[in-house]
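Backbone-to-sequence.
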């Protein structure tokens, strides 16, 4: 049967199994299934038949459906939903930003986990019930970062996309999500960011990272990621960003810079190293020298 969404999409709720039936467009395309997984498979079939890009398909309603499914605390459902969002995103056309505005709040939590507060897979694995749980969390994180890369590529309002990443990533109350957002910056904003996404204005990201400079838990990783942004935008533009920081943020920046210089950490500015899993976050770590600066909090 076709799953119907109530006006505004609230009917799907957390369980996704109690909503009524409704087609998504005038041609009768609809999301079928009584369970969230069946509905995801139905959406996958719509995608495989090249129907996602049709103007008659209500993409916002589809995004609400996916958002409601992403709320469900089930490992298989979440990774299936994330992979589906990743595949659908390039087909949303001019609706990309509106759809991501709906889904971003439910996508970003997949960057973190309540048990994640270390920097490598080996240490993290000891905190989880099994090695496979660690792999599942890694896959969720990796897929979420890839979704954000696609979002930035296809967005027609990159500044709005940056605000969403800052709001739901850097400024979230969940420490592990904030941490993983910080260390994903070198992946999301590479040196060719402007040619990829048509903008070089990354002040929103620097501003969000700078707020983490005054928090001991995040200040070293935030400092390293800000240095990555400096390499992307150039020194002149970066200096204009620094000039806008608060007094406390500038003080923290200067102290971290001095500590790097005293430690001979010229490599500190290059920051994060890539561990196992190309393109992923699990396994990424701070360089050994900079890891010793984790307690700097003056």
């Amino acid at each position: 049967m076709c799953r119907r969404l109530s006006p505004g999409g609230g009917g799907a709720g957390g369980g996704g199994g109690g909503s009524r039936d409704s087609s998504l467009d005038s041609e009768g395309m609809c999301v079928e299934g009584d369970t969230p997984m069946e509905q995801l498979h139905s959406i996958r079939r719509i995608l495989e038949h090249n129907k996602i890009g049709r103007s008659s398909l209500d993409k916002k309603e589809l995004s609400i459906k996916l958002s409601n499914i992403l709320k469900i605390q089930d490992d298989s459902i979440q990774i299936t939903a994330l992979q589906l969002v990743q595949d659908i995103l390039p087909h949303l056309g001019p609706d990309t930003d509106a759809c991501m505005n709906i889904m971003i709040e439910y996508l970003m939590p997949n960057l973190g986990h309540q048990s994640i507060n270390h920097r490598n897979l080996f240490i993290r694995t000891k905190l989880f019930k099994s090695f496979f749980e660690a792999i599942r969390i890694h896959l969720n994180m990796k897929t979420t970062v890839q979704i954000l890369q696609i979002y930035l590529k296809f967005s027609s309002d990159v500044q709005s996309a940056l605000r969403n990443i800052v709001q739901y990533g850097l400024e979230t109350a969940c420490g592990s999500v904030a941490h993983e957002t910080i260390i994903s910056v070198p992946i999301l904003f590479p040196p060719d960011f402007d040619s990829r996404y048509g903008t070089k204005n990354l002040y929103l990201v620097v501003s969000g990272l700078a707020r983490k400079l005054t928090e001991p838990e995040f200040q070293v990783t935030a400092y390293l990621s800000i240095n990555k942004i400096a390499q992307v935008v150039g020194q002149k533009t970066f200096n204009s960003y620094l000039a806008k920081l608060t007094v406390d943020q500038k003080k923290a920046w200067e102290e971290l810079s001095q500590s790097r210089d005293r430690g001979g950490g010229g490599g500190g500015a290059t920051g994060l190293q890539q561990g196992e899993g190309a393109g992923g976050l699990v396994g990424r770590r701070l360089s050994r020298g900079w890891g010793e600066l984790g307690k700097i909090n003056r």
